[in-house]
Amino acid sequence: QVQLVESGGGLVQPGGSLRLSCAASGITFSIYAMGWYRQAPGKQRELVATETSGGSLNYADSVKGRFTLSRDNAKNTVYLQMNSLKPEDTAVYYCNAHRFSLNFWGQGTQVTVSS
């Protein structure tokens, strides 16, 4: 049974930082592409950042220079370090594991950026 469990969301002021974590189980973590997506109210889910199993990183233009994705294959965990947060970063953030036709999602964690 595959599980992706996100943590680290919360309320933060503009300009602040948060680090999201996603712990994976039930998959061979190192061979999966891992990523973070987000969905704001009334909007479609969008890509935030992804990393292939080979280490290639891709970021949405809106987060480049502010967010950093990293993974620890020994801990089966992927992280999203979010700095210089803006109100428009407010969304539910979802962890994703992808390999060929296999696609798994976490339950999501809420990030709210507000003063």
Tell me the layout of helices and strands.
Blueprint: E1 3-7, E2 10-12, E3 18-25, E4 33-39, E5 46-51, E6 57-59, E7 67-72, E8 77-82, E9 91-99, E10 102-105, E11 109-113
Parallel strand pairs: 2-11
Antiparallel strand pairs: 1-3, 3-8, 4-5, 4-9, 5-6, 7-8, 9-10, 9-11
Task: Give a structural overview.
The structure is a single chain. The chain is globular and about 40 Å long. The model has no long low-confidence stretch (mean pLDDT 97). The chain is built from no helices and eleven strands. By secondary structure, the protein is mainly beta.
Computed structural class: mainly beta
Report the biggest beta sheet as strand number plus sense, adding barrel if it closes.
7 strands, mixed
Calculate the terminal CA-CA distance, rounded to whole Å: 40 Å
Q: Summarize the amount of helix as a percent range.
A: under 10%
Stretches where pLDDT is under 50 for at least 5 consecutive residues are none
Rg, Cα atoms, Å: 13 Å
Count all strands and give the number.
11
Helix count, DSSP H or I runs of 4 or more residues: 0
Strand content: over 45%
- The H-and-E topology, N to C, reads as EEEEEEEEEEE
Shape: globular
How confident overall, as mean pLDDT? 97
Describe the structure concisely:
0% of the residues lie in helices and 54% in strands.
Question: What features would you highlight for this structure?
Answer:
single chain, 115 residues, mainly beta, 7-stranded mixed beta sheet, 4-stranded antiparallel beta sheet, globular
